[in-house]
Specification:
The structure is a homotetramer. By secondary structure, chain A is an alpha/beta fold. Chain A contains 14 helices and 12 strands. In chain A, the strands form 3 sheets. In chain A, strands 2-8-7-6-5-3-4 form a 7-stranded mixed beta sheet, with helices on both faces. In chain A, strands 9-12-11 form a 3-stranded antiparallel beta sheet. Chain A is globular and about 55 Å long.
Chain lengths: 358, 358, 358, 358
């Protein structure tokens, strides 16, 4: 069976497993104040070119989203999101669980459009009843989006400008950030992101870690007391070192000995994290090209590790004998949109075998 | 340096690391629906003699406490706890974050006394203004307690009876449960706990896992939709298998090959989990005896892995050159109470070296 | 100046003021357990033909919405609403403040369509990730809607059927219910509403009271411990009698002596509450006819006390010299939609004067 | 029957009823932005000698407490209260409903002691695990307390100093403030309170209004966006004028014509509000003297409108034939403590009749 249904099927990059094993009996204090976490933080700050950034490690994306949004909002504010935003659909109301409203704007290719955001904020600001309405306080976007699409650097700059105009903070959900940074034609770099966002996270779970998301606040003042807020959210890992180890390994130079650690200052593009991303993107592009060559239509132009292919029911049934994937939706013309996902650990042989089935 | 400051300094039992490494590239679905999690659940149900139990894996204790309490309470109810309960002090308000009130009762040796609970509930039930007051809905206890003390089987039965009399559910925080089950003179077994509690958890983080708490609802109806509530709490691990692997290994027969898995049905007392507990208890007892032999007073009689020793400031200063431990409090007589903790992985040599320093 | 901007500009029906004055020094217990509240409850049950109903009095609509929704939802559920629902826009996130998510469906003429609700629930129920998604648990509608439109009896029956099919409860926000019951061509009666809804409220604030909303749960089991939940929401009035007095007067026979109280059993259509509604509707219809006669287009066909008229900016400017009203929105064709509201206390002379200005 | 069970049995001061009736058909905008509310705010600012203060009107004490505490706390903080504080007992968890923890300190005569507060904050600040613990952010006290006792001006100054030392804000629940200001031997004035507290409220419900609490933030910056937060709490009254009318009348010169309004600048001690307080205090003192003269012990020395008398069961049974009052508690010696409450409207004849029964 070939597996293309998600990017969190396997464990972790072997260098992580190796380091966990090698350091298993080290004794360190808990809650992320150990030297390994500090090393990982230093590596991330360097890769982000954000030397002052506050960096916190959380276990998963839903808790990271809820905690950061809770941190950035003032009591009378809510978070603006595309209606397709992950926080609005598949997080079981975790943002609302902490008393926060999600202000929805219809998406465009899975993205929150800067002009739409500006129009929304202007309508709120001009409304006669604005004091009765949740104020837009944070703009939430995912990079790449839930649809596999990507914000260009220009689009991010436009969102930043809209946020500045209306006093919003910008938060970027980077659950799959590695696949955005390594995407075909990507224009945004990690330092760009650190320059433009008030907070973002570097997703580990889907890009080579067992688990873990590194939340970055480029301006540490915005992270005031964030550790206690994390605890209030049940989002502090007791043996915090386990998160430090993973991000330390991911932000080493690709190819470095996982136990030695190598040079502490590695630019983003040379890290194991980006290497993981590039691996997935290369195979995703090969997959897309193969589908096209076999006469299939792609539902949207995706430069990342999720590819959406249009198929008949019969195709789906036949492929299901040999591979796992997710049926995304049925189009108006009756045909199905099917999602194939590659990851940091997808084998090229698996892609070849899948394409051979077409 | 000798480390006796907590039971979560190191990584995991080597069998866990071994199994994580061996299965790293297995491909399984996320969120705990995989076969490894199912195997771990079956082992836990067997060890608890609770064949119908719902078993859910969470990453940490604070999130487990908040989610289970949220699950068990009805909207007008609160959770009764000893004032020394972990939820009331060191969880940054995580229970209240979900709109729930903690109803405090003064502790007795760190414990919630059944007679006190009964009196509290009776006072509420008879109050003229009871409809203006948060109703007691869940009783929360820790076994062992935050003070290292232990509820006897009789005490648990009495709490159960008090809960039944007033319609409360009983929830047991088992962050250190392995050390309660293996304690010197323990009268409560795991099947006892499953018979008496409406929900409890088997703490992994402090008893040999990298992280993880296995929440058990002996009556699965009480766990209705608990997965979605976990998600709402940000308490679902994407690669749920990582939790399954750890509890599967911990509930194997002690000494079994961590990768083979061994017989699926292992009574609690023969599991690796209990073996971990016994290791810590043996060394804690040795430590206590050593302190006594050296003329030290023990602040309380602890049958578990936390020992509280009375010392002068000068003793503390001197020992601090060689060992880490926590100063718990200053007594009325001016002397200090100091906590020494052993764990599943404490080396006997470290205990001997510490005692040699006295 | 003529005032047509809202239906809560004045105080209360004179019979209410009269009764408050006459009973001012009566001494009764607080919190709604007095005899006057009981009398008002009995009148409401009779008018609703719901002899078992639980009736609770709250001060305002936002607190009533938040408390009832909190009461009716289970922890993993959310409330479905048209995107134009009052709870979704002008209540500052009060529903989310208690940890609840609003699940939005695009409106049709301000209404939640039963087929749309059914499709939404079906999509949720069939979703592969439904356990990660907030479940639809309550359907919220306003009768009349925020747009002045009305659900017909058939439409309500269809919503009820959709709720039954998917296990939802139906909650009707009746902030302006008097104007729905008295609307031109209304097909729904108060007993119909009590038969079809799981909870609804009879709005006093906008239909002749100083303040107050009477929440009705036709099945009292759904109101279990609702008083304590109200208190938790800060929604209990200490001198509860003040609410009882107002609803007692509103549900007397129209024309009865406000201090004597009259016969205790008055059908809905003969109450002062309905008389208040009819007064406003009559003038709203006269207003609409007058605008049409003067050549104005009405933006939508409203059978209730809110009329939406299409105007040029110049018209608006000119009218503003003489009258207050709300500019609702600018249409795509550049013209403005303007709202004129009548109430239980609008004077016919004011309507005539306004029409004379056209 | 003589009623001494609470101070909210009757309606409102006749001048309030008179003004409500006289202005019933006035047309004003909603939500507290009308001229009457502005007039009431100006009167309150003058009486407080706090010309910059932000003043907001809420309907009841529970919602005022929850909203102000929510406003004053930062996300990682909680509110310190005596364990006997009203928010901790009889408000059904309204503070926790918004995610806030109450940090309890044992009371001394119903009061929060400044030294205890200082010790609590110091222990928190010095704690090794302080980042895991809810930080003290607001100190909540009631003036007078739930036990009828009073903070002296010195005690308030000491609390203020403790708050300043540890960065807390001070919030005073004044549900019965009129009875504190008029108490026998009172040393605190309304301007003192406005100088010392960061927020407080002037209780109307128990001191002559139908309902209503005027929240005062002497520094208006602390009230930033408080209106929207009130709305989020369901605590905005649509016909806000009704609150304005009541406080406008209460802060007029005592004896002024309720409809004319009189001079706009009235010092606190000359207001109708203080006159209401003095009336109740005079009768409470008479009641206390009468009980003492008849040989009864008073459980505590109360200078306010609540008197606590020690009685045998037989006394209680006999008095219950003629009067209503609340049995407060049974003392260790088996005798009962019984509460008698006077109010702004208690008749001297009723006191005389009660005393004649002894």
């Amino acid at each position: 069976m070939l597996h293309f249904d998600s990017d969190y099927l396997e464990g972790a990059h072997p260098a992580i497993i190796e380091r966990l094993a090698a350091t298993n009996f080290d004794q360190t204090p808990g809650y992320g104040v150990d030297a390994v976490c500090e090393s990982a933080r230093a590596r991330i700050r360097f890769a982000c070119q954000a030397p002052q950034a506050a960096v916190h490690f959380l276990v998963g994306g839903t808790q990271a989203n809820a905690a950061v949004i809770d941190q950035l909002l003032r009591p009378w504010e809510g978070v603006v999101s595309a209606d397709t935003g992950h926080i609005n659909g598949h997080e079981a109301g975790a943002v609302e669980a902490h008393g926060r409203k999600i202000l929805q704007i219809p998406h465009r290719n899975g993205k929150l459009d800067a002009a739409d955001l500006r129009a929304y904020c202007a309508a709120w600001a001009e409304g006669e009843s604005r004091d009765h309405v949740v104020a837009p306080g944070v703009a939430y976007i995912s990079q790449p989006t839930e649809y596999g699409t990507l914000y260009s650097l220009d689009e991010l700059e436009a969102l930043r400008a809209a946020c500045d105009e209306f006093g919003l903070r910008l938060f970027v959900d980077g659950a799959r950030l590695g696949y955005a940074l390594a995407a075909a034609g990507a224009t945004m770099t990690l330092p760009d992101l650190a320059r433009l966002a008030d907070a973002f996270y570097i997703g580990g779970t889907k890009v080579g870690a067992l688990f873990g998301e590194a939340v970055v606040f480029p301006d540490p003042q915005l992270a005031d007391h964030f550790f206690t807020l994390m605890k209030k959210h049940g989002a502090v890992l007791a043996k915090g070192r386990m998160l430090g180890v993973q991000f330390d390994v991911l932000f080493e130079e690709d190819g470095a000995d996982g136990c030695a650690g190598g040079t502490p200052q590695v630019p983003a593009e040379r890290t194991r994290y980006l290497a993981n991303g590039r691996h997935a993107i290369g195979l995703a592009q090969k997959l897309a090209a193969g589908f096209r060559a076999a006469g299939y239509e792609l539902a949207m132009e995706s430069p990342t590790n999720q590819q959406f292919v249009v198929m008949d029911d019969a195709d789906v049934e036949r492929l299901r004998q040999h591979a796992t994937f997710e049926v995304w939706e049925r189009r108006a013309d009756g045909r199905l949109v099917v999602r194939f996902v590659t990851s940091w650990t997808t084998r090229e042989e698996a892609v070849d075998e899948l394409l051979a089935l077409l």
